[in-house]
Amino acid sequence: MTKQPGSAYFLVDAKGKEIRTTLSVLVDNEAGVLARVIGLFSGRGYNIESLTVAEVDHLDHTSRITIVTSGTPEVLEQIRHQLERLVPVHKVVDLSTEQPGIEREMALIKVAGTGEKRVEAMRMSDVFRARVIDTTHSSFVFELTGNQQKIDAFVELMKPLGLVEVSRTGVVAISRGAEAM
């Protein structure tokens, strides 16, 4: 079978470049909403790279779900439209393109070491502005806030110095400017 540009089979080969995006979804704060949003992703085979949820308005009973995902522009547009159709969803904003935003992640990084490795870990923590939040004679726990690349870089530098464990919050994001989401 020859795949012609006008046929549906041609679309299978027409893979666009995958991009990463951050979606901010304002939803009713009620039982089952998160399960419905996650079900939308898992039921269609979409991947979630990061997911955070928190109540943002106690009086209105609304929560913000921040989802980091990736796909072709067409797939991301489809995800957005499907999210907008869910009943408890009030608004969906793409903070990567539509309304540029600020993203941050927090990580706790445990490093064990003595001697020169311990001193070097402390030097690196100063460069990255990581705070020491716990210390023993043989280990540190650093707290680091920043974008994903900053945290990844710090973790990579800690590996040869005695990296033991990493715990990350996932991405939180908010749009720039005076307007609300």
Secondary-structure map with pairings?
Elements: H1 9-13, E1 19-28, H2 33-43, E2 48-57, E3 62-71, H3 73-85, E4 89-94, E5 101-112, H4 115-127, E6 131-135, E7 139-146, H5 148-158, E8 163-168, E9 172-175
Antiparallel strand pairs: 1-3, 1-4, 2-3, 5-7, 5-8, 5-9, 6-7
Task: Output the keywords.
disordered N terminus; 181 residues; 5-stranded antiparallel β-sheet; 4-stranded antiparallel β-sheet; 9 strands; Alpha-Beta Plaits; 5 helices; 2 domains; alpha+beta; single chain; 39% strand
What is the number of domains? Answer: 2
| DSSP strand content | 35-45%
Number of strands: 9
What is the overall silhouette? Answer: elongated
- What class do helices, strands and sheet pairing give? alpha+beta
How is the CATH topology of the largest domain named? Answer: Alpha-Beta Plaits
CATH architecture of the largest domain: 2-Layer Sandwich
Q: Largest beta sheet, briefly?
A: 5 strands, antiparallel
| Secondary-structure element order, N to C | HEHEEHEEHEEHEE
Alpha carbon gap, first and last residue: 48 Å
State the helix count: 5
- What proportion of the residues is helical, as a percent range? 25-40%
Please identify which CATH superfamily of the largest domain we are dealing with.
ACT domain
The overall pLDDT, averaged over residues, is 90
Question: pLDDT below 50 for ≥5 consecutive residues: which ranges?
Answer: 1-14
CATH class of the largest domain: Alpha Beta
Short description:
The chain contains five helices and nine strands. It has 181 residues and is α+β, with helices and mostly antiparallel strands.
